[in-house]
UniProtKB/TrEMBL annotation:
EC number, UniProt record: 2.5.1.7
Pathway(s) the chain acts in: Cell wall biogenesis; peptidoglycan biosynthesis
Name of encoding gene: murA
Domain of life: Bacteria
Protein name, entry field: UDP-N-acetylglucosamine 1-carboxyvinyltransferase
Catalytic activity: phosphoenolpyruvate + UDP-N-acetyl-alpha-D-glucosamine = UDP-N-acetyl-3-O-(1-carboxyvinyl)-alpha-D-glucosamine + phosphate
Keyword annotations: Cell cycle, Cell division, Cell shape, Cell wall biogenesis/degradation, Cytoplasm, Peptidoglycan synthesis, Pyruvate, Transferase
Gene Ontology biological-process entries: cell division; cell wall organization; peptidoglycan biosynthetic process; regulation of cell shape; UDP-N-acetylgalactosamine biosynthetic process
Domain Enolpyruvate transferase: 16-419
Catalytic machinery residues: 124
2-(S-cysteinyl)pyruvic acid O-phosphothioketal carried by residues: 124
Binding residues for phosphoenolpyruvate: 30-31
Family (UniProt): Belongs to the EPSP synthase family. MurA subfamily.
GO CC terms: cytoplasm
Length: 430
């Protein structure tokens, strides 16, 4: 656990042209376990969470739950979350600064304590990330928010209406999760969220809440209905596999795989990726919850067009990794980032490695394929760009030094060990 520190400027030294051969197992989903942990505030009873990845974002959420008055014990990939003392309604700045998802405790804390004070999450390298949809939606549930000195002060008052309609301007993942979780305990009120996000992690959260005694309908659709209840109880729950970790390693397999087997995936959650790989003529063998893949770089592959979109569209969290693959495919690929205003910063780093990518209007990457990449010192700016730079380094000629790489520990469990098991050597230096 000690090595999992962020805000540190660790670096990875990677020799290129390695081959990944063997079995790689996918861990539980970061973007599912974080909102589920935030929802644990809604009950005093014991919650057992299984398949929880050992990553620094989970540690940050543990810190937040403990500062709110919970005790959290971890045994391997299982968390035991219990109430230790009165739930404290204030969450300090430090953990929220480290991780935006921590803001999702705001609604549950306010419902449980009637008042709350939570730090406002700042921006991040992906561009402006306001929480206006969260605040506006919670307001309709009776939560008045006052923003002062970088904190949001919440106060809940009973609402007269028995039915509340919330329509999101954009299917925001975080806002959907936050409103959905909070609405479960607005007793006797029917909340309808329109144009909500449909990511599999939201289904997992809703299934978790329903198992706790919530009454949620429309799971997996763009219209979720929540019938508020009085109380939620403790449960034992297993989190879904991480589709973004799986997608990252599948793309690694297309680059440097040699009969690489990736186990414990949910193929349905990765349909947009598999259909892109089919279009590009990249071979893989999918059977049940595992996929076998080898490098296709020596084959005739097709350039393509990628537009990131809310689920079931192509995930923005796999956009940078796909850019690495497309940078080595003959022809012109365009990649349009439609979710975040500033998620193409990796372009300069890949061009330092010999790629030929141009950025247009901050959200369009024009990728002209080159025959190979070459190792170079590069800089990571966020979780997924650090993973993408690792893929580029593994396929490049020569050595690459990835600076500011600690982001990677936020979302990839035991990455050094997992890669070592498939014959890949990377060295981490603090
Ligand atoms: C979640 O972030 C994920 N994080 C992100 O994964 C993922 O990239 C993103 O969804 C989109 O799929 C977690 O689940 C912890 P959004 P979130 O609210 O909830 C704007 C990773 O690498 N917006 O769907 O923050 C916002 O600025 C991370 O694992 C508002 O304008 O994403 C963005 O442009 C990175 N106002 C867009 O909506 C709001 O109130 C989508 O954001 C909320 C969002």
């Amino acid at each position: 656990m000690e090595s999992l520190r962020i805000d540190n400027t660790g670096k990875l030294i990677v020799s290129g042209m390695q081959q990944a051969n063997g079995i790689l197992e996918i861990s539980g989903a970061k973007n599912s376990v974080l909102p589920i942990m935030a929802a644990c505030i809604l009950t005093d009873e014991k919650i057992i969470l299984r398949n929880v990845p050992d990553i620094s974002d989970v540690n940050t959420m543990i810190e937040i739950l403990e500062s709110s008055g919970k005790t959290v014990n971890r045994v391997k990939d299982t968390l035991y979350i219990e109430k230790s003392e009165k739930i404290n309604s204030e969450i300090p700045y430090e953990p929220v600064r480290k991780m935006r998802a921590s803001f999702n405790v705001y609604g549950p804390l306010t419902v449980i304590n009637k008042i709350s004070k939570v730090a406002l999450p700042g921006g991040c390298s992906l561009g402006a990330r306001p929480v206006n949809f969260h605040i506006d939606g919670l307001m309709k549930l009776g939560i008045e928010s006052k923003i002062e000195h970088g904190f949001v002060y919440g106060k809940i008052k009973p609402i007269e209406k028995s039915e509340v309609h919330i329509s999101l301007d954009f299917p925001s993942v975080g806002a959907t999760e936050h409103i959905l979780t909070t609405a479960t305990l607005i007793d006797g009120v029917k909340t309808i969220i329109n144009n909500c996000a449909m990511e599999p992690e939201i289904d997992d959260l809703a299934n978790f809440l329903n198992k706790m005694g919530a009454n949620i309908e429309g799971i997996g659709t763009s219209k979720i209905i929540i019938h508020g209840v009085k109380k939620l109880h403790g449960i034992d729950y297993k989190v879904i596999p991480d589709r973004i970790e799986a997608g990252t390693f599948i793309i690694m397999g297309a680059l440097i795989g040699k009969n690489l087997t990736i186990k414990n995936i949910n193929a349905e959650h990765l349909e947009s990726l598999f259909s892109k790989l089919d279009e590009m003529n990249i071979e893989y063998n999918l059977k049940g919850n595992e996929v076998k893949i080898s490098s296709s770089l020596n084959k005739k592959l097709n350039a393509t067009i990628i537009d990131t979109a809310p689920y079931p569209g192509f995930p923005t969290d796999l956009q940078s990794q796909m850019m690495v693959l497309c940078s080595l495919i003959d022809g012109r690929t365009t990649i349009k980032e439609n979710i975040f205003s500033n998620r193409l910063s990796i372009i300069d780093e890949l061009n330092r490695m010999g790629a030929n990518i141009k950025a247009e209007n901050n959200n369009l990457a024009i990728v002209d394929g080159v025959r190979f990449l070459s190792g170079a010192p590069v800089q990571a700016t966020d979780l997924r760009s650090s993973a993408a730079l690792l893929l580029a380094a593994l396929v490049a000629e020569g050595e690459t030094i990835i600076n500011n790489v600690d982001h990677i520990f936020r979302g990839y469990e035991k990455i050094e060990e997992k890669l070592k098991n498939v014959g890949i050597k990377i060295e981490y230096y603090e």
